[in-house]
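Contributing new records

If you add data, match the layout below exactly. Sequence lines come first and carry their own label; structure lines follow with theirs. Keep one chain per record. Anything else will be rejected by the validation script.
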Amino acid sequence: MKSQNSRLYYIDWLRILAFGLLFLFHSWRPFDHYSWNIKNSDQSMIFDLLTFFTHGWRMDLIFLISGVGTWFALNSRKSSFFLDRIKRLVIPFIFGIIFIIPPQKFYEAISFYGFQGDYFQFLKAWPVYAFSQNFGASVLFWFGHLGAHIYYLPYLFTMTVLVVPAYKIIQNRKFNFEKIENMIVDPWGIFLLTLPLIVIRYGLKPIYPGYTDWADFFSYMCIFIYGFIFMKNPRFVEIIKQRMWLFLNIGIISNVLLLYFIKQNDANMQLYLKPEYGFIHLYLSFLSVLISFCWVMFFVGLAAKKLNFNHKFIQPANTSILPVYILHQTLIVVLGYYIIQFNASIIVKYLLITGTAIPSSVLVYLVVKRFRLLRFMFGLKTETKKNANVLTEKKNILLSIARD
């Protein structure tokens, strides 16, 4: 049996693929019927379906993976863990809301709010408008309002602060995993893990219905905890692998039932987006949780079976994910604003956005990693002289081998 601290390569692959999907997701957002920063003149039902399908589980998968990563990071960097989290999550968020996010808001203001000034005029007006909002008890809206897509960073930092005390309990064996394991080895027992998610959604969504509000935060945090506590346990992962096709079937059925309900009429869509306590809300909560839980578990099981191997691509891809994630949506919005004005089909415009914005994000990252200050601002580790010398030595060895 592998050590609980051994590298789980399939988690690396899941992280890379989950963020890769996020980049594609934001690239097609100008072409669905749901609100976003910029919108094409025409929308497509195909992209509506893609948004509806992936939105139900994409961030749940990322937070589950983040929970796993937090466990291993805590294990390897106990003394400097919180300082590392501040550098990786808080600093990039602050940098992002000052320098990376305003261009998104600028093009959104032009597209939907009649703003006609230039970017520098917008920068003068934006802080006043941004901080004039009042979200009441929905304080988490500030993360999305100021940070757009990078709300994930303060979300993750907050979850980490709240959950890390459980680390000592687990390490001191004050938490009895055997009882939980004995429950979930039953063919349907693992679905007991959906109960806290159903309770959270049913209890909080009518009060905090907005995306990234308290209902979403605690739902994501629950998934994060599952990743933090359970995913390091080989027995738990084995159960997921065994139930993989069951998760897939239930996920598909739940998606179809939810889509059938909300597509019947606009009133049903409103019941989903702004629910009220009652049987319908309970039913929709049940379906929504099954969608998020089952698809996440299916992808975990599939990756654990097929992707648990190392590859030279993993390390550079994992290193680049954070800065590329921070950059990608702004470049999608900026470039996409001009691309959607082309006289071309939706699919051509989508391919142009993905073919320019995502590679541009990678190119900017390649510039960022060359400068110490920018590396710090984007949450990358700064290269020490020792590391640089090691890299130089490796390069010299490879060159000498190549010459021989």
